[in-house]
TrEMBL record:
PANTHER family named in the record: 2-IMINOBUTANOATE/2-IMINOPROPANOATE DEAMINASE RIDA (PTHR11803), 2-IMINOBUTANOATE_2-IMINOPROPANOATE DEAMINASE (PTHR11803:SF39)
Gene Ontology CC annotations of this record: cytosol
Protein name: Endoribonuclease L-PSP
Family from the record: Belongs to the RutC family.
Originating species: Caldicellulosiruptor saccharolyticus (strain ATCC 43494 / DSM 8903 / Tp8T 6331)
Single GO MF descriptor: deaminase activity
Amino acid sequence: MKKCIVANDAPKPVGPYSHAVLINNMLFVSGQLAINPQTGKIEGDDIKAQTELVFKNIEAILREAGFCFDDVVKVNVYISNLADFAKFNEVYSNIFKENYPARTTVEAKLLPGALVEVDVIAAK
C-alpha cells in the first residue's frame, strides 16, 4: 500500500507532490532544494551551505517516515555547475561515511538561486 509522507520540519511542497512516497518498505523522496522551512526561500551563498541545507531537509523527511541516512540506497544529484562537484562531495562525505549509496550526478538548470537539488531512495 502506498503512503504519502509530508514532514513538518521540511519546506512545504510548492506543487502537487508529497515530500516522499512509502511503498513496500521503500521510500522515494522528492527532489529537495536549499529551502529554509521557516521562510520558504532558497538560502546559502555557496554550494556547501546549500548542500548542508538540502540534506537537513532530506533528513527531516527520512525521519518523518522512520528512515535515516543509513537506509538510503540511491542518491540523484542535480548540480548547477559541475565545477562545484568537489565542494559538494566534501559535505556529502560527512553524511555518507561508509556503505555509500549508489549515486548519479548531472549538471542541470535549476530554479533561480538554487545550486543543487537532491532526491533519494531509501529501503528497510
